[in-house]
Amino acid sequence: MIHLIIRRTLDVGYLTDDRAQELAGVRDGGPGWWLRGAGDAESNADVAAVLQASARSKATGYDIIIAAPRPLSILIAVDTEAAPAVVEAHRAGVTAAVDYLEDRALVVRQRVEEGVFLRAARWSRVVGFTHGINRAGEPHLHDHVLVGAKPDRETTVADSRSLFAHVATADALYRSTLRLEVNRRTSHTAWRSFSGTEGVTGLDEGYRALWGGHVDERGPKVAWGRDEVLRRWDHDRERFEEIGVLREPPRVEFDAHRYRASFEGVTRITRRDLVRAFADASTFGVAVPELNAAIDRLHPNLRVTRGLDERPILLNHARRLEPGLDQRRIPDRVLRIDDDYGRDRSRPSRIR
After folding, report:
1. Which has the closest alpha carbon to 100: 274, 315, 253?
2. Residues facing 147 on adjacent strands
3. What is the C-alpha to C-alpha distance for residues 226 and 241, in angstroms, rounded to an integer?
4. Is residue 332 part of a domain?
């Protein structure tokens, strides 16, 4: 799940001082990378310039924490050859999530005589920091993305309620993009089940038990080197016990039943609900332009809706789908393939 944390200071040392050496040689460059803007991602001054406040608000910005599902984080530890591609897929997902928040959630409220109006806004600078472990030294692929509270060329801060309302949808788009890109860039198959479990074909559940990501005490923050964390993971694997692999879902591109089930008990359905449901129902991931095009064809009246109070639609309209969408099957040998990658897409054996 994406976590959105309001920042109230300009102190960015927590991020710029952490070199995240556990991903040295795996990630492209250092931990800092610019989604928008330029500068030195190791410089406190350049990174702090991302944070923007207004005269009437104490908020300087947001720390958007975007973490990979546990099996995808584990993949960077059990398949070091595929790890660089997994990190690239993660960053593609991060970009998709932040782009969505900016396109649909980043608004400024303007009060005029006729009432309150929402105006779409943009961030002038966005910087992310990619890390590969948690405080316990377990594989934990995640990013801290910094954005300003005050959008570019605005005098007031963005509507925080709108950002928080769209976080769940941004998270669904992140995970869907991550699945798609892992399947494109590596020989592994990432999927999402009807019940919402994220998995990787052939990955034994014993790894999830070994590196569960839940510790009783957070403990101090430790800077791990790449060689050191690899030795730690090798030592951890001595305690590994096979549990078995989860069954991969049916090879359908889109689970229409899962899509419609997302609206069970919901009385006010908005575009963000539709996007989240579509992303979650895309078993092996979906490209964001393809998803947006499908939603816009089904609900053209929702194309420009944004912010907290998006225009709602009725349940029977929300459940409507294009004919045959749930009949598209994924071949057993190939999920989605781009000629640029040129990888063998044979189904992998059990990962040990």
Report:
1. 274
2. 62
3. 25
4. no
The Cα 186–Cα 192 span in angstroms is 17
Alpha helices by DSSP H, listed for 134-270, are: 160-185, 206-210, 226-237, 256-261
What is the DSSP-derived secondary structure letter of residue 346?
P
pTM of the model: 0.92
- Cβ count within 10 A of residue 207: 25
Residue of 352, 137, 129, 131 whose CA lies nearest to 228: 137
Structure tokens at 46: 């350049």
| Residue with the larger pLDDT of the pair 332 and 310 | 310
Give the chain's end-to-end CA distance (angstroms, integer).
Answer: 27
DSSP 311: P
Residue 345 falls within a domain, yes or no?
no
Distance CA 195, CA 280 (A): 10
What are the tens digits of pLDDT across the range 123-132?
Answer: 999 999 999 9
Of 343 and 166, more confident: 166
Domain holding 281, by residue range, is 3-217+229-240+248-327
Q: How many CB atoms lie within 10 A of CB 7?
A: 20
The model's confidence at residue 112, banded by pLDDT at 50, 70 and 90, is confident
Q: Is residue 18 part of a domain?
A: yes
**Rounded-to-integer distance, Cα 256 and Cα 259, Å:** 5
- Give me the phi and psi of 346, to 5 degrees please: -60, 150
Answer for the pair 178, 186: CB distance below 8 angstroms, yes or no.
no
Classify 54 in phi/psi space as left (phi over 0), alpha (psi -120 to 50) or beta. beta
In a domain, residue 307? The reply is yes
Task: State the Cα–Cα distance between residues 166 and 175, nearest whole angstrom.
Answer: 15
Chain-centre distance of CA 143, in angstroms?
A: 9
Handedness of CA 90, 93, 97, 98 (dihedral sign): positive
Q: How far is CA 308 from the centre of its chain?
A: 21
Domain count within the chain: 1
Q: What is the CA radius of gyration of the chain?
A: 21
